[in-house]
């Protein structure tokens, strides 16, 4: 483990991440309402902070408090190992690609805990649905990442970016990119795959019984998750900081915001996927496609 | 191993024991499974303190999904549908206590009587560990892992197949 977390780097990464999350909050509203309302996230945050906290009477006290914080932690932890430029990963782990997955796995734990602990039927169904969704997205996601690791012959995110010097992974392994992109949507329970919190169906699902500040932390956690996933796609498939002219950090930010905007755009135009279909497609098509992608990359590497 | 490492190793070890204890001190399947998850994460953190980066991160990653799925299955197949009910997690307490004490004593005796080799002066770097593990898995241990993996897969498919109802019944 080597550390790059000098104060300027930490501040830079923190600011970029926080700014990105803010921009995402604006973009999310844009995908719903069709206009950019720059002050809205602040107003919404203040409103949620001031609102009365209504807690279910027979909740599980420990898990109810843990779930929002855990979701935020899951969303932000990956940011520590993801590089915005060659010198900006806060923590350069030799198992970076695996660490990113490990951090994201706890988003599921947070939602299951949140849904279960609030002791309401809708919330619990939402939480368990996300567990089912995990079965659908986790295998394609890990196997797609494996293929990028194969090409770089390293799990260090910086090395994975450097391996895309000549050709971005989106061109080198388009199937892997497609799978990772869809899996990322499912992981962040964004609209086509938003069954765990399904608006209009489960009364808010896994986070139906969270109000006020806890609701705010959950929303922040979800946006951080989307942000981390967008950075992950940029780093693993879109050549990271590489690009002509502009400084690397700017390229990463631009690509990240573009990916995030496309997430929200997709959600706006595609209808919700039923979760038995999701599981069926995952096992029948996505997992075999991920294996074929590994074979494809293996052949390209041996050529 | 320096003092700081020892401190964190002991800290995570105690946390693991505490959460392991909590597994049996609750009356709910989900609380129990989540305590077990916390216990496993503490074990993963111990791997990280011992500079076994791959094993630590892998442990922390795998256990999140495994323990949640376990909680789900325990609720499905045992008599506690919501996971919130008052289920006694301990059975046959006296024989179980005696057996646990005996096993603990045996393990301690084994630990203390084994002539452990001296610890490595220099731990291989994390990158080197990944490389060595890959070589190990792809050469000497390949047959073992492939056999175990296929066996587990067959068991999972068989379990799913026996749970299905044929011919499909209308709901």
UniProtKB/TrEMBL annotation, chain A:
Annotated GO CC locations: plasma membrane
Single biological process term from Gene Ontology: aerobic respiration
Membrane-protein topology: Multi-pass membrane protein
Transmembrane segments: 12-30, 61-84, 90-116, 128-150, 170-190, 223-243, 249-270, 282-302
Compartments it resides in: Cell membrane; Membrane
Predominant subcellular localization, coarse grouping: membrane
Record keywords, A-Z: Membrane, NAD, Transmembrane, Transmembrane helix
GO MF entry, a single one: NADH dehydrogenase activity
Keyword Membrane: yes
Family statement: Belongs to the complex I subunit 1 family.
Protein name, entry field: NADH-quinone oxidoreductase subunit H
Organism: Hymenobacter nivis
UniProtKB/TrEMBL annotation, chain B:
Claim: Glycoprotein is one of the keywords in the record: no
UniProt subcellular location: Cell membrane
UniProtKB keywords: Cell membrane, Membrane, NAD, Quinone, Transmembrane, Transmembrane helix
Listed GO CC annotations: plasma membrane
Entry keyword Ligase: no
Membrane spanning residue stretches: 6-24, 33-50, 56-77, 98-116, 143-166
Entries under Pfam families matching the protein: Oxidored_q3
InterPro entries found in the cross-reference section: NADH_UbQ/plastoQ_OxRdtase_su6, Nuo/plastoQ_OxRdtase_6_NuoJ
EC number: 7.1.1.-
Family designation: Belongs to the complex I subunit 6 family.
Name used for this protein in its record: NADH-quinone oxidoreductase subunit J
